[in-house]
Amino acid sequence: MKSLSKILAVTLLFLFTVQCEVIDSGLLDSPNAVTPDNVDANFLLNNIQLSARGIYSGAALRGSELTRQRRLFGGTYAAAYVPQDVNAVHQTTYSSVFIDVQNLLPIAEANEQYFHMGMGQFFKAYGLITMVDLFGDMPYSEAINPDIFNPRLDDAASLYAAALDILDQAIVNFKREDRLAFPPDLYYPQFSGDAKVEAWVKAANTLKLKAYVNMRHVDPGAATAGINALLADEVGMITSRTHDFTFEYSTNDTNPDSRHPLFTNNYLNGANDYIGVSLMNMMLTDKGIRDPRIRYYFYRQRTQNTNDVNLQSCLAASAPGHYTEEDVWCQLVEGYWGEGHLNTNGIPPDTFLRTIFGVYPAGGRFDANQGQGANQFHGLQGAGIRPILMSFLTHFLLAEAALTLDGVALDARQLLEDAVRLSIQTVHAFGASVAVADFVPSQEIVDAFVAEVMAKYDAEPLRTIAKELYIASFPNGIEAWNVMRRTGYPNRADGIQPAQNANPGNFYRSLPYPANMVNRNSNVSQKAGAAPNHVRVFWDTRGADDEFDF
Hints:
Layout: H1 4-15, H2 41-66, H3 77-80, H4 87-110, H5 114-135, E1 138-139, E2 153-154, H6 156-175, H7 193-214, H8 220-232, E3 245-248, H9 261-264, H10 277-285, H11 294-297, E4 298-299, E5 356-357, E6 385-389, H12 391-404, H13 412-431, H14 443-459, H15 461-473, H16 477-487, H17 515-520
Antiparallel strand pairs: 1-2, 3-6, 4-5
Helix pairs in contact: 1-2, 1-4, 2-4, 2-5, 2-16, 4-5, 5-6, 5-7, 6-7, 7-8, 7-12, 12-13, 12-15, 13-14, 13-15, 14-15, 15-16
């Protein structure tokens, strides 16, 4: 464990994008060196805010791959991930966010920078909840102590409790009127004064809602009481698009490149990602009307299917024997070109042919049947967002709570309708400046689509809430994975594609522990047993272990 002074030095050098050797501790008395006495709280908080993107992106990626929003490579689940794959999200959470928050709090308190403290505490709680949702039990109480080199695992339920307590502390600090000043704010820069306070309190309350809904199986009493307290709170949660909690990118391409990573990964030199055929097919065929968000989510680089087996090798093969007629296989329609789940096909020369991320949220191109290969000048040119805590998510979570917790007296059906409409409005508004009028769904089409959703709700309420949350969450896969584990939906009956391998092994109920954590900590062993992928996080108690082993 590094000393506090070393940590502060490395943090600030990172912010100025300078790389160097670790400084000898004997030089830290230099008047030019960074010490706890002269570090600027704004620098620390800026790094915390920037690092929080890494927590989101790491969790969103793994969740979207597991839930078929994006392709998961490998013939089996065991081959898909190795512990090294999750080093980055773990390291960002602990080495950047947790340590920087620990360093920030006493400095900010001494300078009466209470809003700085609140923001730091918010991101600490966000990181802690995300670590539990990804891994389960994790080091925490001993993890940031420089005198403890091998911190022990803490029970995951206690980590959720700690995160909720941290959020309460953050809210107190947000509301303090004796603050010295507001800090630079990368998430709610549009607000000032009381409006900024309200926005951050709403975000903290919404993160608490997410935790309570996850807890509903293991502690329904606490979940109900917590949600009802949030409903009674005078500030409330994120319920309108005005307060969506997002990180915004720009079109700036140098010094630094500030475009959305999903844009730079697919619009500069051809596509590097595959969209999952399960999600695209669901949006194409689940209702009698195509999903009104599909032209915003996805951009087709060609609008016709290919007959060339060199471009799509699946054309030369029949569907695997364990597939049914309902399971999507190989091509979809009209050039919606993705890839299947857990296959081992090589990468064909399709980088300017396959379907890629569209205008929402990647800042790419609106699909108006152009059928052209993408380039960096298309669409919003990378000015996308990270959709972290959205108003439509609040409504979906409240709908699920109202349906499943007896003490939450809300109208689940109305909340679902509001959630779906908010999601569509959010997506359409985001892409409005580059949308082509002839291809923008009319209000009549949106109303007819929502009517079909509600008809499905009347037949299967929980399945419908979960499936619509799954679609709306794209590409925030951690929310999709969470709802699948909480509810069992969507599943194969909803069009979730099985693996090509008839026996893909055990689906991940939690991820393997990061290699760096296991290799460097003698008190942590890798998850073991006959089915280590079946190790569950504390709130995941419903359903059979193998229900998603397909």
